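G., the chain you wanted modeled:
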Amino acid sequence: MASSEHPAVGCKTCTFFSEAILKTIRGEAVGENIIRLAASFDPKCATCKYTLDSFARLAPNSPLQLTCPMRLDCFPQKRFFFRTGCGCWDHSAYHLELLPSSELAPTSVHYKIIDADTIDISSLKRWPEYCEQHHEDCRPTPTQPPVTDMILIDVDEHRLVQFPGTPPKYTTLSYVWGVLPDILETRISNFSTLQLPSSLASPEILPRLPLTIQDAIKVTRDMGQRYLWVDRLCIIQDDEANKSQQIASMASIYANSQFTIIAADGADANTGLHGVGSSRPFPELPILEFSPECRMRPGPETEEARYFTTWHNRAWTFQERLLSRRSLVFFRGSVIWQCKCSVWVEGVAAEPDGMVVDETWRTEKKRPAHLAFDRHFTFELKTPKRPDFRYFEGLVRQYQRRRMTYQADGLRAFSGILDVLSRTYDGGFLHGMPKMFFDVAMLWEPQAGSKPRLVAPGSRELMFPSWSWASFQGNVANNLSDHTFGNNPSIELTPVVRWYHAPADEPISFVNLTPHLARMFKQGGVGGLDLKFFDVPTIDTGGLMVEKEKLGWLLHGSVSVASFRMQPEKEETSKLVRVAWEEEVAPFVNYHFLDSSGKIVGRLKVPFTREDPVLEKDALCECIVISEGKAYYTRSKWLKEIYLPEWGLNEETRELEEFHFYNVLWVEQREGIAYRRGCGTIWKEGWDRQNPEVRNIVLG
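Predicted structure as tokens:
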């Protein structure tokens, strides 16, 4: 690897690329075909070798061939990217950005020489100062008022301070707890002690303070801030009232922070912040000399999936990052600043250093805009003016892929996101489900490798309502939702059940009122609507065998009920797959619904675990209708092949341009309560032939 002290002299290939770079720097036009075959890269040239090695690291399973063309894209904004021009899918996603030196681009983005071991935190102070002065979109909003009654770490006096009213300015820390012995945390018994001056620096307490928190205290102080919020110390861990209040306020805590320190390298709280309390573990990026006049440096490594760490895979850190207006990310030995307007990286000169950044390539929709280091992995929680179910569903998918130590935190670790979204989602959320999209939201399906969140191994009792996505850990998806929204949706969904919620000591509510009203407006308005439609029924929960606090888990409604014989789509169901939590579980099993004559009329997707044996052939399953759908073949030919296969498997429906169906739940009755076991679709006429009955049901 070429070092910053001894850059290598370029070869003929490097000289060729150097000419194009220097022309671009001078403002001269260059052609688009700045290409050399991989075979022309001299392995004895340090610059050529680094370039080839970079692509080898990016795509280890798809090595470059000697005939692969290597293309240099040069943009007038003085941005440069190496990428392959062979068109191979395996290579097309990879690129190598090159940053010019300060001599080549003194007033635009260029690389800076930085200390190889230590981060100069004080030099990064310009980032929040510049953002505060110039980025109006990054300032606190009235919709996110500050939290009152906060505990903060005073980084000057090394102690905890409690602020009953509006707190002063503070920073926050997002990190991985891990499992460490004798780690310091605030409890009722030591809270008074930790408020004493210098208590956190005392010989008795400092050794129990994790290195990541110690380094975050130093960073906060060096960045000119006085107070820091860290969950382990600023929440009294055995005070349930304080803990509940703080968790419920997560959205405001992170949104009102000056910035969040992200310890993205940490496997646990003792990793520390590399370059602050310990040296950087990653090698310095080399300076590449294409010619004596043309020195470049590779762009900084970005937060991409291949570099994701334990921090990127933890559930709690997902919302901590999303809720933060500004983030100071310690990642792979470097520091990244990300706010709503910019991404800046240590070692790269940008606006806070007086550079003039030309972003016209973004408005021109030039290809590299999404590849550049300062536009990759922008991570923020959007609050669109109009609620967007697909955006919400995407957040759930990302969140559910992450791990958590305590599965009971399944909704707590997502509560801050729900708090923000509830300001635009009419009616808010019920156990993680948006009320205004309730009927669509009920169509979620766990994916292969997911498993239910059970209160104990071997138990059948769930930690969350069976109708909520939170009842499963692992990836979940709502595949039909991709086809139910937009100007010309290929599936039209209609609610058919009025769901009611009757928690203890609270009034009964009409859960999916908004979807029903939307249906009425679509069908011609609500003129002449009988006001009794808005009445809620009397619901007697006295006979239900359920704890009082879990009455809020139950949905009450009048539904169409029918039973169908089931047949596995494939006979083989024993194949296991390995999933994120390092346990072998079987994938989902698809079943066909059969009517009384044995015809296929629908499909059911059922999660398979060791606790839940696969259904026997011809097993009889009770199902309930939750919504009605109409699919249009002319709008999406994939529906018949992938999402509604029963459409093409039944000779009566195979040639139809429109397919009318019901979305159904397979339910299991236990002590007067129905629990969701699977979600599927059934041809509408096939359902009606089964002589269904209407029944009041309690869905738990």
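Residues 12-25 form the longest helix (14 residues).

Shout if anything looks off.
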